[in-house]
Amino acid sequence: MFAEATIVYFDPFYFKNGNTAKPKYFVVLKNIDNKNILASLPTRNDAIPAKDEVEEGCVELPQINLNCFVLSNQKEVTTCGKKLDFKTFIYGHQLDTYETSFLKEIYPLENTDYTIWGKMKPDIFKLLLTCLKTSKSVKQKYKKLLNA
What we know:
5-stranded antiparallel beta sheet, alpha+beta
C-alpha cells in the first residue's frame, strides 16, 4: 500500500483536520523507512489561471506561488493501463506526511477500507517528482525528503 508511485483509493479518506471524510485518491511520493510517507491528495479542482493552462505536465508560477502537476484524463497513468476519469491536479503546497502505523490502523483491510488503484508509470512519476523537487512553492522539508 505504501510503495512509492502507488495510487491508493480510499472511500472514505479521513482528512487530518477531522472535518471531512470523502472518497479520495492518494499518491505515495516517498516512503520514509516504512514509518512515514510523503503523499499528495490529487484533486479535480483547477486553480491554474486560464492563460497558464496545460493539458498535462508541470506548471510553475512563482509570481503567484503556485506549483501543480497536471495528469491528463486522455492518457494512461498506471502501469496496468488505467486512465483517470477527469483531468487531475497535484498541487505542491498540498503535500503532507502521514504515519504509516496510523494509516494501517484506520484502513486495515485492502479492498474494503482502501483499494490499490495502480502504480504510476515510471516516466510520469519521474516528471511529477522533478516538478515538485524544483518548485519554489514546495516546502523545503518536503523537497529534502524527495531528494533523499
